[in-house]
Design a protein that fits this description.
The complex is a heterodimer of chains A (385) and B (174). Chain A is 44% helix and 14% strand. Chain A has 385 residues and is an alpha+beta fold. The relative contact order of chain A is 0.18. Helix content of chain B is 29%, strand content 25%. In chain B, strands 1-2-5-4-3 form a 5-stranded mixed beta sheet, covered by helices on one side. The longest helix of chain B has 13 residues, at 31-43. The chains are: A alpha+beta (385), B alpha+beta (174).
Chain lengths: 385, 174
């Protein structure tokens, strides 16, 4: 069996695909183990990956090009669609970039409501991710539990904002409306149920022998790799780095909330799972803190000029926020007209799914590849925009 | 940030320092010095994180603005390095040896704006638009409407009066 593996010349494995010892295989674009639609072109030897190439482009809708031809307010229905599980980060960052260029300060209460919106969507996004992570390792039951609980969170969103997935709650200058009467109590009931589910996930998933055997040591990210590959978010925190934009460059009202940066040290798929699992507890705690401390009266949005004729002063800015996958950023350039000159979306998956995954996949068993992909929490529309 | 700019100005030809916020600043540098400036910032001044590389098309000035945004985790500041290159012959030095994700950004810019980065691995390969025949689509002078009119056949919109349509469909014999 040993002589099957290709010889290494100058740090690269050299092999002849026609020798019949190696096989080229496509993993995706339509595959239950792939997050979203992207494909991996794999060269395999036996059941081990020896080369991986990421192919994207199946979800390209040209968002950045579309935005150049739309007024700022018309871009709102576009930006949220860049990330389906967590659209609120996009809405917040687009609005914040506009406000930064226009020099608008939003009311205190709007900041609290935006933070609540971001944390609740973080919880929903993590619930969807943990379903994918467990499903990739053959534990479909956990996936069903978490997807059901995500739906309860979406119920809260529906009651609050009128929509389940694309809330469009954050608008330039503030937020769209107040919390409904009695929403706090229903939110507490739902997040208490999620809290209980997380305790159960600890027993059935994180302490499960099969899950541990497959996830421990899979796709190890070392601290040296973090800056070299541009790794951010939980993927960077899983190898012991204390990096969280909510703490490092606090935006909205995160500096008034009490939380710590969750880290692990091993850097593998298992520690990434643990970091995110801990962050879900943290998210629940943050939602409770916000609901307890939030001011209940005051303006919801600042006064803006007519948004249909809005012109933004010439300039450029970059705004970032911590999404579930790490640093999410918007680079906005205005030329003084009513249309954005250029909006660049910096999605965390851009680096995780292309440069990093291609290197981490080498040497991995093909059965573990979906688990590796999900553990990086990649999401293709962010790459293609 | 102004302090850092003054220190860097001793070695590099920088211009147009613009402090956007206390933690974000932009400055311009000549294309020939850009990669050595980025290496210097990464190795000496702690700007170890390449946040993104993007391009803005200034069609009226016949220029592309490449923006290299770097982040320093120790001081928690961002520095945007702006490089203006000729729009008609867009060539820029590659930074794939500094950051692994650099080649992905350069591959995208090559595809979307037609900027060449000689030496960057796989820069010629299509990334998102496999089989694309037209000009680089993110350029400002690319007309999406004209392209789709030429490329795809026109499908006229048929509108029926609901009442009349149902009558014809369901009770055509009457």
């Amino acid at each position: 069996m040993e002589n099957l593996y290709p010889p290494i010349v100058d740090g690269k494995s050299v092999y002849d695909l026609n020798s019949q010892k190696y096989l080229k295989m496509w993993h995706g674009p339509q595959h239950p183990g792939v997050t979203g639609n992207m494909s991996l072109e794999l060269d395999i030897c036996g059941d081990q990956v020896i080369k991986c190439n990421t192919h994207v482009g199946y979800l390209h809708r040209g968002f950045e090009k579309l935005m150049e031809r739309r007024r700022y307010i018309n871009c709102f229905p576009i930006v949220c669609r860049i990330c389906v599980p967590e659209p609120d980060t996009n809405e917040y960052l687009f609005a914040a970039a506009m406000e930064d260029l226009m020099g608008i300060e939003i009311p205190e209460r709007a900041k609290w409501l935006r933070t609540l919106n971001l944390e609740l969507s973080r919880l929903a996004s993590f619930l969807m991710w943990i379903g994918g992570q467990s499903g990739a390792f053959g534990m479909g039951t956990v996936a069903q539990w978490t997807m059901a609980h995500r739906d309860f969170v979406l119920d809260l969103f529906e009651e609050w904002t009128g929509a389940r997935i694309y809330h469009m709650y954050t608008i330039p200058g503030g937020v769209r409306g107040d919390l409904p009467e009695g929403w706090d109590k229903r939110a507490e009931k739902t997040i208490a149920a999620v809290h209980k589910l997380l305790d159960e996930i600890n027993y059935v998933m994180l302490n499960n022998a099969i899950f541990k055997q497959r996830a421990v040591g899979l796709g190890v990210i070392t601290p040296e790799m973090v800056d070299a590959y541009g790794v951010v978010g939980p993927n960077a925190r899983c190898c012991g780095l204390q990096r969280d934009i909510r703490k490092d460059q606090p935006y909205l009202i995160y500096d008034q909330l009490d939380f710590i940066i969750e880290t692990e040290t091993a850097g593998d798929a298992y520690s990434r799972t643990v970091v995110r699992w801990k962050e879900m507890y943290q998210s629940i705690a943050l939602i409770r803190q916000i609901l307890a401390k939030m001011p209940r009266s005051g303006a919801l949005h600042a006064t803006l000029p007519n948004v249909l004729h809005l012109k933004i002063p010439k300039g450029q800015t970059y705004l970032r926020a911590e999404s579930t996958r790490g640093e999410y950023g918007y680079f906005m350039v205005s030329d003084g007209s009513a249309f954005p000159r250029k909006v660049t979306v910096r999605g965390p998956s851009y680096t995780h799914a292309m440069a990093l995954l291609e290197d981490l996949a080498v040497g991995v068993n093909i059965a573990d590849l979906p688990g590796l992909m999900v553990s990086l929490h990649t999401y293709p529309p962010e790459i293609e925009r | 940030m102004k302090k850092l700019y003054d220190i860097l100005s001793l070695q590099f030809e920088l211009a147009d320092f613009e402090s956007k916020r206390s933690d974000l600043a932009f400055c311009k540098v000549k294309a020939s010095q850009a990669i050595s400036l980025l290496t210097h910032l990464r190795d000496i001044h702690g700007y170890t994180h390449l946040v993104m590389l993007t391009c803005v098309d200034w069609l009226e000035d016949k220029q592309f603005q490449l923006t290299y945004l770097l982040h320093n985790y120790a001081t928690k500041t961002d520095l945007g390095i702006l490089v203006f290159i000729d729009r008609d012959h867009p060539v820029m030095d590659s930074l794939h040896h500094l950051w692994k994700q650099g080649r992905v950004y350069q591959r995208e810019l090559h595809e979307m704006f037609g900027i060449d980065f000689p030496g960057s691995p796989g820069v010629e390969e299509p990334m998102i638009l496999e089989g694309w025949q037209g000009p680089p689509p993110m350029r400002r002078d690319f007309d999406t409407k004209a392209y789709s009119d030429e490329t795809y056949s026109h499908r006229p919109r048929v509108q029926n009066e609901p009442e009349q349509h149902m009558k014809e469909q369901l009770y055509s014999e009457d």
